[in-house]
Amino acid sequence: MTKMASIDPNLDQNLAWLKEKFDGSADFFTKKMQLCGVECALMLCDDLAGVDLAWELLLRPLQYEPRRFSNGAELAKYLAVHSGVPFSAAPIETREDLFYNLCAGNGVFLADGDCRAYSFAAQNFAQRSPGEPDSEVNVYGSKEAFCDVLRRNMGLIRRRVRSEGLVIRTMRVGRYTDTEIAVIYHRDLVDRRLLEGVMARLKRIQLQMVFDSGYLAPFLEKNPYSLFSCAGMTERPDTLCAKVCEGKIAILADGTPYAVLVPFFFTENFQSMDDYCSRPYYASFIRALKYVAFLIAVLFPGIFVSVANFTPELLPGQLLYKIAASEAATPLPLFMEAIFVNLILEIVKEAGLRLPKAIGHSVSLVAALIVGDAAIQFGILGSPVVIVASLSAICGFAVPSLYQPITILRMLFILAGGLLGPLGIVLMILTTIFNICSINSFGLPYTAPLTPYNRGALRDGILRASWKKMQGTRFVVTDLPGAKRRDRHER
Q: Mean pLDDT over residues 239-261, rounded?
């Protein structure tokens, strides 16, 4: 590890190092001045920090200061301890930290003869305010989503969890970006081994750049080739706070509104914040409906192809006749036709998603009314296959966090059903179940709290009990076998 260089007491040496570091960048602003008889410098990055704000915080209070100081160390001590200048609590002692503070949007004050610099908050860069969630839309509950600024996101979390146990630790990752990330957990609920494992893996990250929380998720997973992920994502502060209060750990990165949650269990893909604001019977019904939608999205096209090709006697006579008549008019085999339709649906989805909104809606309309209808009328595609593919695609949208594995599994089931028939479907089902059961996150099973069985599965698993039954006994990670809770005396 490279040893960091200390700040030189000579002001000109530090300024020369910074100018070399920025290599003539137009946004680096520095102003040398005489304050209270000492030569000083104010530094900031233009557009990240405001010169007017720095003037109000630092220079205006000292404009009429009558005192004089013999060296920069005395002046800096006076400003930090006895004046109203809002310096940060910890002074900057290395040149690398000095450079990082400038790039983070802070103003930096440096006095000649002092080997420490002082930063103060003068951020003035353009930023998006917290808005409504895009990917986790709820009817009830909070309408607030994370923004792109890490510090503001930390405030959204602290405002909701006003407990002394909430801990937010920051660190920096990315060789070239030096991105600040925050690790958030509740020290009275988190598993000690889980916390140590997460921190160890984050410290081992050697990425060249980090622009999103998703860059960090693969380093927190143990099964990189699995279709399912044991690291969840959320853009909702209330969801993150709820998971932290269950003993989980959240990781937020500066510059992105999405947070990573570990560990993340399979059943959580079918839960939403609406469940906890609705009546228990309705929330349980919606959760069960999502499981049914997941099975339809994954299995239905493959089973349809398998039954139509290998066991057509299982179909009613009228339906079998219509399928046979439709397929006789199309040039492709049934399973190839099913794959082609699903590929077209994915292309349409990507086109509508990546294009501007005004054009994206037109793409879906053209695909539905022109391409789909024309393909059926012309005899390229059969109506039964289009109906089956459309129904499975709609069911896949009911569980958005599993959309990616659903898409791949649907294709695999179609291939298995088209080539091997019922045997292929059974083999794919067993393979999928084995894959889900084999995933674990830091020793915690992906299938929890269903297997190993935990009483929390009855309260807040596939079904949801009422708040009267869940109060004080809601499932937390430390309820699982082998988990160790961090007690108060171990802080």
A: 93
